[in-house]
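In response to the reviewer comment on reproducibility (Comment 2.3), we provide here a single inverse folding case reported in full, input and output, so that an independent group could reproduce the run without further information from us. The structure tokens appear first.
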């Protein structure tokens, strides 16, 4: 008799504690998602401000890139297929994430380029501008990495940053015949495209057939121009990638905020239904107990 009474008292207590714990879990999760939503909204506002600044700085930076590539296009400089055995790839990304697939797109393009050039029997070396790109390529293509450049993306890129990267590349001692810089080309706020631009060594430019029409260009002038053009192309690629990254981060944070709003709505509905079920169950128990007493 005593055991039966203890069982009757224990069962409703167990059910009541279970429902209260469920409501408490939902409340904690709601609070955490609301905090995450505040963070994503703040990050979206910061990215929007940085994007506006990067877009303003992109227009004058494009002049550097088009000017550096003008000689390659007008003189029709191309590396001979039989002599171009060493290829250099400069990949431009940054050290920061939370911006969608903007870094993986550049890494995918570099991997495809390495595979195509390796099949042709060419030696390929990679210069990583940004730590995110190094992390994506280190495990599978670590033997091709020649130089890693960190501390990129925390501040807007400057011409000095591009000069440092170009100086490290030229002082590395790697004599490449032909190369390319792979970066994200900015198209609009919601669109970017992975693109590449050619890079040539001083020997390839000097030995080009079309350079014979420029009789008054000596070796020193040509070397200075090649080094300056390399800095300009790197600076152009960094500016394009920075603008694309900020626009992608702004879009990603906006999507994260919308997803958080949907989760908050669903959890609020679940919380209200669960609370209503608990209240209804307690009312039924009270009514049943009162009916039993009468």
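Designed residues, in position order:
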């Amino acid at each position: 008799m005593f055991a039966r009474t203890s069982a009757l008292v224990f069962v409703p207590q167990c059910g009541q504690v279970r429902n209260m714990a469920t409501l408490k879990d939902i409340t904690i999760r709601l609070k955490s998602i609301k905090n995450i939503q505040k963070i994503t909204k703040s990050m979206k506002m910061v990215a929007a401000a940085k994007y506006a600044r990067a877009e303003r700085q992109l227009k004058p930076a494009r002049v550097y890139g088009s000017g550096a590539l003008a000689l390659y296009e007008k003189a029709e400089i191309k590396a001979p297929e039989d002599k171009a055995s060493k290829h250099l790839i400069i990949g431009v990304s940054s050290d920061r994430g939370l911006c969608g697939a903007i870094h993986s797109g550049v890494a995918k393009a570099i991997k495809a380029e390495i595979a195509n050039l390796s099949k042709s029997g060419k030696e390929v070396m990679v210069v990583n501008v940004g730590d995110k790109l190094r992390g994506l390529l280190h495990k599978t293509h670590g033997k091709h990495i020649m130089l890693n450049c960190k501390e990129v993306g925390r501040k807007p890129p400057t011409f000095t940053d591009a000069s440092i990267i170009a100086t490290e590349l030229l002082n590395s001692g790697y004599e490449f015949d032909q190369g390319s810089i792979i970066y994200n080309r900015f198209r609009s706020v919601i669109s970017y495209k992975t693109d590449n631009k050619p890079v040539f060594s001083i020997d390839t430019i000097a030995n080009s057939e079309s350079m014979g029409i420029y009789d008054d260009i000596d070796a020193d002038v040509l070397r200075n121009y090649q080094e300056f053009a390399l800095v300009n192309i790197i600076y152009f690629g960094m500016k394009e990638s920075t603008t694309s990254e900020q626009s992608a981060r702004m879009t990603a944070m906006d999507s994260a905020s919308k997803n958080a709003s949907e989760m908050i709505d669903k959890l609020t509905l679940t919380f209200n239904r669960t609370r209503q079920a608990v209240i209804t169950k307690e009312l039924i128990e009270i009514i049943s107990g009162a009916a039993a007493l009468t």
